[in-house]
Amino acid sequence: MASVKIPALNNPFVSLSFKSRLPSSFSVTFRDNLRFSRSSSRPQRRFLVVTASSASISGKPTVLVAEKLGEAGLSLLKQFAIVDCSYNLSPEELCTKISLCDALIVRSGTKVSREVFESSGGRLKVVGRAGVGIDNVDLAAATEHGCLVVNAPTANTVAAAEHGIALLAAMARNVAQADASVKAGKWQRNKYVGVSLVGKTIAILGFGKVGSEVARRAKGLGMHVIAHDPYASADRARAIGVDLVSFEEAVATADFISLHMPLTPATDKILNDETFAKMKKGVRIVNVARGGVIDEEALVRALDAGIVAQAALDVFTEEPPKQDSKLVQHERITVTPHLGASTMEAQEGVAIEIAEAVVGALKGELAATAVNAPMVPAEVLAELKPYVELAEKLGRLAVQLVAGVSGVKSLKVSYASSRAPDDLDTRVLRAMITKGLIEPISSAYVNLVNADYTAKQRGLRITEERIIIDGSSETPLESIQVQIANVESKFASAISDSGEIKVEGKVKDGIPHLTKVGSFEVDVSLEGSIILCRQVDQPGMIGKVGHILGEENVNVSFMSVGRTAPRKQAVMAIGVDDQPSKQSLQRIGEVPAIEESKLLLQLCAGIFAFGILSSAVVGYGNGKIFDITHKITSQLPTFGSVNGLGQFIWLVASIKNGSTVNVSEFKLGTHTGTHVDAPSHFFEKYYEQGFDVTSLSLQTLNGPALVVDVPRNNNITAEVMKSLKIPRGVHRVLFKTLNTDRRLMHSKQFASDFTGFKTDGAQWLVDNTDIKLVGLDYLSVSAYDDAAPTHHIFLRNREIVLVEGLNLDGIKPGKYNVHCLPLRMEGADGCPTRCILTA
What are phi and psi of 105, to 5 degrees? Predict the structure, then answer.
């Protein structure tokens, strides 16, 4: 047992300062048994003595198995860890138990939410999903909390394929309906006449592991098998007698359609009214993949109209479906309760596979089936950040240009650099290119751990070339070029003179740029989306296209034209902030002299969303700062900055003259906000858990926000908030001009005796060569009931999170997607949290 002395305050904020790290069990004891009152008075400082039980003395990690797992897997786990089998836990019970566990194993029935990771107190190291799909695991929260997620993607492949064939045959011969009829005392042989499978065409939509196994079995039944998969290998398909075709041909010619595609934005409701209208009348559909790939209401309409004769479904958009579901109750629907992986053999295989992955991860080994990001050294992130973003975006651009049915089989990446080959680590870049190529067309979650594994499993051969050029070795790369051979292109001009799809990019002023498409030189920032147009070079083309976009209020950020010669062929690359409508793109294509056009979407997450909160991810260097706890002087510290990006100084305690502080190697954008006001219940866990930033909900902070230009002549009040006329339904607001005038730091409310400033110091951001003060007070969540500013009442009534901006002079008022990161270490003394906002 250990005693810890904790200062207690009678207000909604509780400041905790631990002399040593406590066992994980302490957080549960503290959260469940200790409460702080919220009276309006502020009593003198006093101390509580809290007794915390020690952690397990066995030294073995604890694995919580939250759903039934095969005995073989349990036996393997018990050889290495303490195994706690607790099934049918409520979300609250899971959050309570998880702080005592190092690993968690679930199937599809347990939701591993952000709250689970927040409740773990940092102890949870790995989550194992006994199966393929990871829809029930919050991957972003897992990576933010330094937790590895692994799955078992291979053991149930045969079981899922067999279930697909079982449904296929049962549907064709009306087995379920006939069975129900006989059991009801009827004998209706003529009513349940079926159809034969021999000689019929079955289209496999999604030719991965399960899809190819279904194809083999369908061939054995005498069926003609075609398949569509934008990433499938034609050679692998031919080896088992399958023809790869386009999606349109597959749905138009098939007698049977079997779905085996992942649920991604591209496949969400891919079978809809429009798709059903293109199908052969009397088609039959089997789905053992994901429920969301079918528009279920549209399927009912297609059944009623006679377009679809029958359907057999093992998965649904909502599971379990509602009892009165028209789809489930339809007489020509055969349904099963998600039994795809439910065979005894598959269950044992999955149990062993996931147990091995979890044990390996707890031992510190890299798992081939990891589905989220590993820890990347900070020095690599700091130097390669813009190039990593460039690499992923080039991959995403390249795959959007691929057409045809052969899929991407080989990829060549060329790195131009003045550094020696051994001095350029391209693993992160290669992983991000792979991520960009694969993620838009699959459900794969690609990262540094699994990038090469995923590429190999998909038959993608990647070759890398390092080109040494003259120049300064301070810059790691001059350019990255991505080439895809032996494919057709949706944009013919992307094919280079040597016959490959070719895109090339550079980093300019910290921003990724597209500099070559095919053989055409362009220069356009890879922000927002890009429209490519091939045209005859002639006057007025830029104006015509710009006019069409302007009529739809689509903002053009960049425009560049590359040409072979004056008045000859040219490619125009247009960067747009908003996605144009289909009608606008069609109008652009109809402009005389434009021969082809293509919209390329830039949906890039990158690895920089991962692991920010884990101290193991970000490396630090030491820096000295001056005494700023009492006054502002001209002797302010200066730190170097590059291309508008600076270093963030992370204060972990009050500072004194000459103090050593941690300087993050992580580069941040110049458009930042650092002070957040919000209704208190938004951050209830934050102050209940002693200002632990890992308890902050990024889902609450992040998302669409309204940027408002508001003058700061005096304090913000409820009246000022009302005058802004913020529309109803807006839940995040960014004040553009707040805290940008440094003279305010000399005003009375920011005097040297201001408590928050005096005791907790301040945080700084280097913006170009100018260093600016970034807010002085706490993360305000209506901290004191007796002194809540009036604008907090407005925020509470409207459920609004308010972020105060810094240096947003170049940002126009409007709606933006914002990303906040709480930058503060757990257990910091006082812990006045800041949020960085990037517009």
Answer: -120, 130
pTM (two decimals): 0.48
Segment 343-350 shows an average pLDDT of: 91
- Domains of the chain plus CATH, in order, are 62-151+347-363 (3.40.50.720), 155-339 (3.40.50.720), 378-600 (3.30.1330.90), 675-838 (3.50.30.50)
Q: What does the pLDDT look like over 102-161, one tens digit per residue?
A: 999 999 889 999 999 888 877 888 999 998 888 889 987 887 676 889 999 888 899 999
β partners of residue 48: 6
Nearest in space to 493 (alpha carbons), one of 521, 528, 466: 521
Token digits for 107?
């199937």
Evaluate if residue 783 carries a pLDDT over 50: no
> What pairs with residue 650 in β-bridges?
662
Among the listed residues 114, 129, 145, 338, the single catalytic one is: 338
Check 31, 290, 458, 834 and give the catalytic one.
290
Task: Give the model's pLDDT for residue 44.
Answer: 32
Active site residue 746: no
* Annotated catalytic residue 804: no
Pick the catalytic residue from 71, 319, 465, 551. Answer: 319
Asked whether the predicted pLDDT for residue 598 surpasses 50, the reply is yes
- 338 catalytic per annotation: yes
Contacts of 318 (CB under 8 A, 6+ apart): 291
Q: CA-CA distance, 111 to 116, in Å (whole number)? A: 9
Q: Count the Cβ atoms, other than its own, within 10 Å of residue 423.
A: 10
The 3-state DSSP class for residue 286 equals strand
What DSSP character marks residue 607? G
CB 794 within 8 A of CB 829: no
Q: Tell me which of 662 and 509 has the higher pLDDT.
A: 509
